[in-house]
């Protein structure tokens, strides 16, 4: 089937600036398709239908996980932000990918919601130019919110986009964007950015631990980092659900080589012993005892020993696990380690 044609493609994170940038161009009577990249760290493809109706935009979800992981784990050239966010490399990667998609949609330019001076790492003047150059989009990237602070682009020079109707917002304030959102009649104002877990210090600890322990982590490993309580003992990774939702996620994300730990006859958390290292029966029995620490009903029962099931595919085995105190275990929660962050950059 032939793809619908558009004048331009835009980066759509779901954050306010990306919405405003696309709406500004749409308001000039041009057809724009918003590309919503998603990965274990950012993006919400399940919200695309909702956003389309709410903002009157056309959007397409694109999974960029594979390319993103390969950049993050071995090819970060322009440094990381405060946590593990490689913002400059991320922007370059996304723009390169959108550039490749232009011809498929008959589009001739790209729109993005960057604002000069808004973010210290990726939106300084020199960085905005570096991104243009490295992504190879110097003559086709339009930044409508801040265009008047930058040289005009080819699409403006050719008259396809009216430069008079573009803006010259700059700096870290949000006043101009909020006023524009009001003028455009946006019914819902999202947070400034789209929400990226690589900027979250708590998630940063989890990701850093994973990267330092597993040589080539997969997308699913990063998704598992989001779930429940996380514990490591050497290279053994144990995840314990905090609630029903976590337990469901553990089942959904587990592979056939993982082992699910389930306390018999009592409600409580599930555990997931992640594949990738050998779990002896002894290790699993210790993990089973550790799981009991997080089951209040078990602790209130007055018993001292409990049956714990190990479930893998259709197999099920059972051990008897004793109740102990948290301090009796070596399992450690991930901690931030600046040296590990540097190692990540040195892998380039
Ligand atoms: S915050 Fe995350 S998604 Fe946004 S540019 Fe930085 S790395 Fe990319």
TrEMBL record:
<dbReference type="GO" id="GO:0004810">
    <property type="term" value="F:CCA tRNA nucleotidyltransferase activity"/>
</dbReference>
<dbReference type="InterPro" id="IPR014729">
    <property type="entry name" value="Rossmann-like_a/b/a_fold"/>
</dbReference>
<dbReference type="Pfam" id="PF18297">
    <property type="entry name" value="NFACT-R_2"/>
</dbReference>
<feature type="domain" description="Thil AANH">
    <location>
        <begin position="8"/>
        <end position="148"/>
    </location>
</feature>
<keyword id="KW-0067">ATP-binding</keyword>
<dbReference type="Pfam" id="PF02568">
    <property type="entry name" value="ThiI"/>
</dbReference>
<dbReference type="GO" id="GO:0005524">
    <property type="term" value="F:ATP binding"/>
</dbReference>
<feature type="domain" description="NFACT protein RNA binding">
    <location>
        <begin position="228"/>
        <end position="295"/>
    </location>
</feature>
<dbReference type="InterPro" id="IPR059101">
    <property type="entry name" value="NFACT-R_2"/>
</dbReference>
<protein>
    <submittedName>
        <fullName>tRNA U34 2-thiouridine synthase MnmA/TrmU, contains the PP-loop ATPase domain</fullName>
    </submittedName>
</protein>
<keyword id="KW-0547">Nucleotide-binding</keyword>
<dbReference type="InterPro" id="IPR020536">
    <property type="entry name" value="ThiI_AANH"/>
</dbReference>
């Amino acid at each position: 089937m032939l793809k619908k044609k558009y004048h331009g493609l835009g980066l759509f994170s779901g954050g306010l600036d990306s919405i405003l940038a696309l709406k500004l161009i749409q308001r000039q009577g041009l057809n724009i398709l918003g590309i919503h990249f998603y990965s274990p760290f950012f993006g919400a493809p399940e919200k695309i239908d909702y956003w389309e109706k709410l903002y009157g935009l056309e959007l397409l979800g694109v999974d960029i996980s594979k390319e993103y992981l390969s950049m993050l784990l071995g090819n970060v050239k322009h440094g990381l932000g405060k946590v593990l966010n490689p913002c400059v490399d991320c922007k370059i990667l996304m723009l390169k990918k959108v550039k490749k998609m232009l011809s498929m949609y008959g589009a001739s330019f790209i729109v993005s919601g960057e604002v000069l001076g808004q973010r210290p790492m990726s939106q300084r003047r020199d960085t905005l130019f570096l991104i243009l150059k490295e992504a190879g989009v110097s003559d086709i990237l339009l930044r409508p919110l801040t265009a008047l602070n930058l040289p005009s682009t080819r699409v403006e020079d050719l008259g396809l986009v009216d430069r008079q109707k573009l803006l010259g917002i700059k700096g870290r304030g949000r006043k101009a964007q909020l006023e524009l959102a009001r003028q455009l009649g946006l019914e819902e104002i999202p947070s400034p950015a789209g929400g990226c877990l690589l900027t979250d210090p708590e998630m940063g600890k989890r990701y850093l631990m994973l990267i330092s322990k597993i040589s080539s982590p997969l997308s699913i490993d990063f998704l598992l980092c989001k779930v429940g309580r996380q514990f490591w003992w050497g290279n053994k990774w144990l995840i314990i659900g905090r609630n029903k939702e976590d337990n469901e996620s553990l089942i959904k994300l587990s592979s056939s080589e993982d082992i699910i730990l389930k306390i018999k006859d009592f409600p409580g958390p599930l555990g997931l012993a992640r594949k990738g290292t050998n779990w002896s029966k002894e290790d699993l029995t210790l993990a089973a005892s550790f799981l009991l620490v997080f089951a209040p009903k078990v602790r209130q029962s007055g018993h001292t020993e409990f049956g714990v099931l190990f479930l893998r595919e259709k197999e099920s085995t059972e051990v008897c696990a004793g109740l102990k105190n948290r301090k009796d275990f070596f399992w450690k929660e991930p901690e931030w380690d600046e040296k590990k962050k540097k190692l990540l950059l040195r892998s380039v």
